[in-house]
């Protein structure tokens, strides 16, 4: 086998086969294993060194052994080395097993009586490789017929539709918790002081020029009162920061500058400024905004109180 495959092909094939096997079995994320784990690089270097060393050693052993042979033995070795693949014994046996063809000397045994202008026909058996492949196709056809046409298993089109529907559900589920895919429908209000501190940093970096550091308003509206131009609450404020204010005279859209998580932080910080009443704050703009959920809950609370009072 070493004579059939040259060393300059054998070493790279073995080396890269081992390298691909390591990449397959070692979980290295989005980076190659030999980059993420230095020990893998060391192992590959040592393995390549050993491959080259083994080839050099075997070549030296072959040369020493050859010089120790007699002239007759050297002639046998040279003849075997110069023998082509087609003339080798193992190749002949393999071809005989694959084709089951008769040798030329035995063609008379399979000669048919047909004679077309001197052209005669041999009754050779079908090649085993072709015959076995034909049998496999028959078995496959029977299994396919029973499974898909008689038992009603899903065909490729049905499988694709189911996988697409499942993929859609998986994407929707992922978007519910993926921070950088957040939108005004899935955003939630942050109240943790550490999270609000992050929002304050973003606010001071991008918003103080129009809203002042205390949120009292300058070019932009006052953010500390209960009046809102485009609606209050975390969802409306998130939407306004993401897509911008009124066309032509409102705030620019920040979705190209800030990530959804950053917009969530700054929107939560803006809402934390409610009721702080900074000095010299700008006059209210817009209308008083009432949380629809809170408005729905209020009558229920009143009804519960009145019912309790009646029972007393």
What does this entry show, briefly?
This protein is mostly helical and 312 residues long. Helices cover 59% and strands 4% of the residues. Strand 1 (111-116) and strand 2 form a beta hairpin.
What descriptors fit this protein?
mainly alpha; disordered C terminus; 4 strands; elongated; two-stranded antiparallel ribbon; 312 residues
Would you give an account of this structure?
The chain has 312 residues and is mainly alpha-helical. It contains twelve helices and four strands; from the N terminus they run αααααββααααβααβα. It has helices at 7-25, 33-36, 38-68, 71-82, 89-99, 128-150, 156-177, 193-206, 208-211, 233-243, 260-272, 292-311; strands at 111-116, 119-122, 227-228, 287-288. The strands form two sheets. The protein has a two-stranded antiparallel sheet. Strands 3-4 form a two-stranded antiparallel ribbon. A hairpin with a 2-residue loop joins strand 1 and strand 2. Helix 1 (7-25) runs antiparallel to helix 3 (38-68), helix 8 crosses helix 11 (260-272) and helix 10 (233-243) packs across helix 11. The radius of gyration is 41 Å and the shape is elongated. The model is unreliable at 307-312 (pLDDT under 50).
